[in-house]
UniProtKB/TrEMBL annotation:
This is Cof-type HAD-IIB family hydrolase. InterPro entries: HAD-like_sf (IPR036412), HAD-SF_hydro_IIB (IPR006379), HAD_sf (IPR023214). It comes from the Bacteria. Keywords: Hydrolase. The keyword Hydrolase applies. Coiled coil: none annotated. GO terms for cellular component: cytosol. It holds the Pfam family Hydrolase_3.
Length: 152
């Protein structure tokens, strides 16, 4: 399922495959927002993740086993949620976020109603107030209804 999603993103042009990261800055007309690295060698992925995590201007996470996502430290879902809430005049304590993988952690750590999907990785579930159903079984809708019912 993940491979299909990745292939679709490649097909529509939102992901580009490169054989070498050394010359990413040399691609004319491209704005690089995130670098995804994939490998079947999970130990290698963990070593690279650990080394990159030492850089203060980078944020390294993953959305599945065997990959790492590298972004600028300020380009996180948690930062985005805080910015949107501020623009809308909504307190983060009154905000809900729902996630399923490590790239959602910064978002769940900032909001008053952090929710993990049932299919979320265990580490993310530790940051949630509650776990909703899976994404294939209307988990997002169920989480919204639960929070609304508890706050009437």
């Amino acid at each position: 399922k993940i491979r299909k999603h990745i292939q679709h993103r490649i097909d529509i042009g939102t992901l580009k495959i490169v054989g070498n990261y050394d010359h990413l800055e040399d691609i004319p007309g491209e704005l690089i927002m995130k670098v995804l690295a994939f490998d079947t060698d999970l130990e290698k992925i963990e070593r690279v993740k650990a080394r990159l995590s030492e850089k203060s201007n980078l944020e390294v996470s993953s959305s599945s086993r065997g990959n790492i996502e590298i972004t600028h430290a300020d380009a996180q879902k948690g930062t985005a949620v805080a910015s949107i809430a501020e623009k809308l005049g909504v307190s983060l304590e009154d905000t809900m976020a729902i996630g399923d993988n490590l790239n959602d952690k910064s978002m769940l750590e900032r909001v008053g109603y952090p929710v993990a999907m049932a299919n979320a990785i265990p580490e993310l579930k530790e940051h949630a107030k509650f776990v909703t159903d899976t994404n294939e079984n209307s988990g997002v809708a169920k989480a919204i209804y639960k929070v609304l019912e508890n706050n009437e």
